[in-house]
């Protein structure tokens, strides 16, 4: 059994074996639209005019990025622990 199964979900789709992964995605909105990136995958980023478009674009970017990596590289990238939170701060 492949090591990749330790952190991915094996899916059999029409005789093809694929893996599903959960990754962190940061989405920012500015005056030009939306910008998204995946902190686990250095350089994996995209943009879109709407939230729906940027989500579709970043999903595609992540899938294409992962296709270029070996199983060991995927394991190394996706084993990073990414935590997000919101903090309340005071400004004087």
Explain the overall architecture:
The chain has 92 residues and is an alpha+beta fold. It has a domain at 23-78: 2-Layer Sandwich (Double Stranded RNA Binding Domain), CATH 3.30.160. It is 27% helix and 26% strand. The chain contains 2 helices and 5 strands, in the order E-E-E-E-E-H-H. It has helices spanning 51-67, 71-78, and strands at residues 9-13, 16-20, 26-30, 33-37, 45-48. It has a 3-stranded antiparallel beta sheet with strand order 3-4-5, with helices on one face. The chain has a two-stranded antiparallel sheet with strand order 1-2. Strand 3 and strand 4 form a beta hairpin. The N and C termini lie far apart (57 Å).
Chain-wise SSE layout:
Elements: E1 9-13, E2 16-20, E3 26-30, E4 33-37, E5 45-48, H1 51-67, H2 71-78
Antiparallel strand pairs: 1-2, 3-4, 4-5
Provide a concise account of the structure shown:
The protein is of the alpha+beta class and 92 residues long.
Main structural class:
alpha+beta
Strands of the largest sheet, in order across it?
3-4-5
**Global shape:** globular
Portion in strands: 25-35%
- Briefly, what CATH class of the domain at 23-78? Alpha Beta
Order of helices and strands: EEEEEHH
Helical percent range? 25-40%
List keywords for this structure.
single chain, 92 residues, alpha+beta, Double Stranded RNA Binding Domain, three-stranded antiparallel beta sheet, two-stranded antiparallel sheet, 2 helices, 27% helix, globular, disordered N terminus
């Amino acid at each position: 059994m492949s090591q990749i199964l330790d952190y991915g979900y094996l899916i059999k789709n029409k005789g093809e074996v694929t893996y599903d992964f959960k990754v962190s995605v940061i989405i920012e909105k500015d005056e030009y639209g939306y910008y998204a990136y995946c902190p686990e995958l250095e350089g994996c980023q995209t943009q879109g005019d709407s939230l729906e478009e940027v989500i579709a674009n970043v999903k595609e970017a992540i899938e294409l990025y992962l296709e270029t990596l070996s199983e060991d590289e995927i394991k190394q990238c996706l084993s990073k622990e990414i935590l997000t939170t919101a903090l309340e701060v005071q400004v004087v």
